[in-house]
Fold:
Amino acid sequence: MKRSTLFAAFVLAGSTALSACGSSDEPAEEAKPAERLVAEGGKLVLPAVSGRPAAVYFDITYNSGGAPVMESASVEGAEKTQIHATDMKNGTAMMGEAAPISMLARQTIKFEPGGYHLMVMDPADSWKAGDSTNVTIKLDNGEETTFPVEIQAAGDER
Structure:
């Protein structure tokens, strides 16, 4: 075999081996659904008066593209949960069900007093300050996340 033919075969084999190291037929790994929708700092504040709704506060971030809409929320142990917002109308703070909330990529939305929050109707009688329960947030694209929230008494520091 000629030296040039042997050299060409060596170069071809080497480039094939190198290209196999750097490529893959598999698509790039995308964040897992649980990592794409992340909630942190969850607190459920019990009502000051028994029989009234509780409130849930947390921060939530969507770590992916698109702009799915927050479809619903539920709290383990509660009859009903609503996504609420506080707005100013004629100088008065008014609370009610929130308009659809789009989850923009890598934007954190704060659920806090005076803003977005969850209203928890008919909270469980068994809930006590210091305990915890779980909140589930669902998006209209089918993604969801479940996270723990610490239960606090009405007067506790948030």
